[in-house]
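Whiteboard transcription, Tuesday session. T.W. wrote the structure tokens on the left side:
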């Protein structure tokens, strides 16, 4: 099942299928380690849903919802 990273709830995990976005945002996501086949686990979500904290490649990363919306994930059960 596919889902955007911005739609994840705490505890969800999956593998990056595709990174979208334009120019700066896409390049920034790649620089932070969000690349195809990277495993991501949702750790925390702010009360209003923005920002969100995920674990990727062994470190904690905080993303804005607009950034997370560019990442298509494959859900792992």
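and on the right, the sequence the group agreed on:
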């Amino acid at each position: 099942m596919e889902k955007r990273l911005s739609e994840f709830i705490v505890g969800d995990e999956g593998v990056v299928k595709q990174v979208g976005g334009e120019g700066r945002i896409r390049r920034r996501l790649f620089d932070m380690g969000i690349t195809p086949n990277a495993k991501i686990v949702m750790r925390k979500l702010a009360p209003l849903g923005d920002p969100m904290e995920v674990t990727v490649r062994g470190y904690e990363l905080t993303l804005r919802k607009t950034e997370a919306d560019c990442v298509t994930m494959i859900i792992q059960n």
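Someone added at the bottom: The chain is about 15% helix and 40% strand.
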